[in-house]
Amino acid sequence: MAKLFIETPTKATSLAQQLITQARENFTDENLQKKVIAFIQAIVFYKFPNLALEEIEAMLDLDAFKNTRLYESILAKTKPETELETKLKLVPKLTQKSMSIQEIAELLELDTEIIRKYLQEES
Known about the structure:
It contains 8 helices and no strands. Helix 2 runs antiparallel to helix 3 (30-47). 75% of the residues lie in helices and 0% in strands. The protein is elongated and about 60 Å long.
């Protein structure tokens, strides 16, 4: 794995694929296997900073990568907020302005139950 750090980008891809295959074959402990593969992936992300997550996944054939913490943290940082998430961020400010749940629902064009549930989760 240390060689992966210093390998040229063209050779790094095939080396990373080889190391991932070896990790899958040689480590029977699934938790250890995931950690080793995530470490290899982190090195590849470092080697290819201009590639998108999807491009690296395709390069390394990493369907299993989507189950790692590294993937989840990268996705969380790059995933744009949904319209619902954006609207729900306004709810606490609107309740501070003494607006009712019904008024907030009408203003944000949301169901009152979504707002009630959000307020319960926040408290």
